[in-house]
Amino acid sequence: MAVARVGLVGAGGVAQRHARVLSQLPDAQVTGVTDVVPAAAESLASTYGTKVFPDVEALLSEGVDAVYVCVPPFAHGPAEQAVIAAGIPLFVEKPISLDHDIAVSLAKQIAESNVLTAVGHHWRYLAIVDKARTLLADRDVRLVTGAWLDKVPPVGWWPHRDRSGGPVVEQAAHVLDLARYLVGEVTQVSAVGSGTPPSVPGADIDGSTVATLRFAGGAIGTLAATCVLGWKERAGLEIYADGLALSVAEDKLTIRSGDDITTVDSDPESARVAVDAAFIRAVRGEEQDIRVPYAEALRTHELALAVAASAASGRSVDV
Ligand SMILES: NC(=O)c1ccc[n+]([C@@H]2O[C@H](COP(=O)([O-])OP(=O)(O)OC[C@H]3O[C@@H](n4cnc5c(N)ncnc54)[C@H](O)[C@@H]3O)[C@@H](O)[C@H]2O)c1
User: Fold this and answer.
1) Closest ligand 1 atom to the C-alpha of 272?
2) Per residue in 69-106, pLDDT tens?
3) Helix, strand, coil share of the chain (percent; to 5)
4) Is there a contact between 154 and 231 (Cβ–Cβ < 8 Å)?
5) What CA–CA distances, in Å, run from 310 to 16, 24, 216, 271, 303?
6) Distance CA 48, CA 228 (A)
7) What b/e string do you get for 55-78 counting C-beta neighbours within 10 Å, with b at 16 or more?
8) Per-residue pLDDT reduced to its tens digit, 240-299
9) Contacts of range 195-201, beta carbons closer than 8 Å, 24 or more positions apart
């Protein structure tokens, strides 16, 4: 394959980001885009010099080597089914679906067809996350505190529970995925939602959520999420092991052991490029460094859904 020809399903914010990154990679080319809003597809196509297709089937018939599905949480399912059925490598944005049954059914279809997949949990490609994993490799983690403290993103579907799944499923999932990657599986969650939505029209999601997490390895943790601010305050994870404290965010890792404090700066864009570059290398049959295939993202998604279910029911939920 000279250059990997990539099709995009969905032409919104994150699709534009992938189009920008892919168009800078020497071994990838954005070949076409489709969106249920044709004007969105046309806008992306004119910026990145690619073709607009009326639907996924037409995009696939162009003969693409890979497809990115960049639709909102409520819209997953049909596009992925068509791409997998065609045997085409699939990149899906998180969260992989709102509906657990759809995600499970897609995971089964992927396993049966052995199609290459990747999901956009790009934090796993941060060099500081590699460093944190190395530091934690021979230690027992005791406590984890995660947070995503932010605003309501400017997309109409976001503040609606039946469209986005709410802030934990939609946004804090990055932090939950990082917790799984650095600390291991969570077995039980207990969460509380504020019951008060953020002050944007029509919002029906919790403005704030807190959760407790019990990890299989013995650690306990918390997650705090809010979307009531007008800015992004902080997103990241603090991890405490015997004699070691780590603070991981997209832009910085702080390591403390006694009086010894080290700060390592990080460029968030590096991981956004790396996640696409790794997928394209795998599509081209080169190095295999996909850190979150679909089945792995399903586990993170199930954890986020468990937090949301616990907040809704008021009961603890086994994951
Ligand atoms: N990994 C990340 O860092 C990251 C960053 C931003 C967004 N995201 C995720 O990407 C997803 C999309 O977010 P966004 O900000 O691009 O949203 P958006 O609303 O800006 O764009 C979504 C686009 O999908 C289109 N669409 C909806 N249903 C469709 C369908 N069935 N077929 C084709 N197109 C369809 C919409 O018309 C819209 O143009 C969300 O799940 C979000 O969480 C991930």
Assistant:
1) 3
2) 999 999 999 999 999 999 999 999 999 999 999 999 99
3) 40, 25, 35
4) no
5) 34, 42, 18, 31, 11
6) 34
7) ebeebbeeebbbbbbbbbbebbbe
8) 999 999 999 999 999 999 999 999 999 999 999 999 999 999 999 999 999 999 999 999
9) 197/159, 198/152, 198/159, 198/227, 198/228, 199/228, 200/152, 200/159
Tell me the H-state helices in the chain: 13-24, 38-48, 56-61, 78-85, 100-113, 127-136, 161-164, 167, 173-183, 268-283, 294-313
Tell me: the pLDDT tens digits for 131-162? 999 999 999 999 999 999 999 999 999 999 99
What pTM does this model have?
A: 0.97
Task: Tell me how far apart the alpha carbons of residues 309 and 319 are, in angstroms, rounded to a whole number.
Answer: 11
Q: CA quadruple 189, 182, 299, 206: dihedral positive or negative?
A: positive
**Coil/strand/helix, residue 115:** coil
Q: How far is the CA of 69 from the centre of ligand 1 (A)?
A: 8
Beta strands in 194-259 (DSSP E): 208-215, 220-226, 234-241, 244-249, 252-257
- Rounded to whole angstroms, how far apart are CA atoms 162 and 273? 31
The residue to which tokens 């004699």 are assigned: 243
From the CA of 155, give the closest atom in ligand 1: 19
CA atoms within 13 A on the CB side of 63: 2
Locate 13 and state its tokens: 């914010």
Structure tokens at 277: 């570059």
Using most ligand atoms within 8 A of CB, pick from 8, 33, 37, 70 the residue to mutate for ligand 1.
70
Are 175 and 146 in contact, with CB atoms under 8 Å apart? yes
Nearest ligand 1 atom to alpha carbon 34? 33
b/e map of 219-249 (b: 16 or more CB within 10 Å)?
bebebbbbbbeeeeeebbbbbbbeebebbbb
Q: Residue 203 in contact with residue 156, Cβ under 8 Å?
A: no
**What's the CA gap between 201 and 152, in Å, rounded?**
11
**Has residue 123 got a pLDDT over 90?**
yes
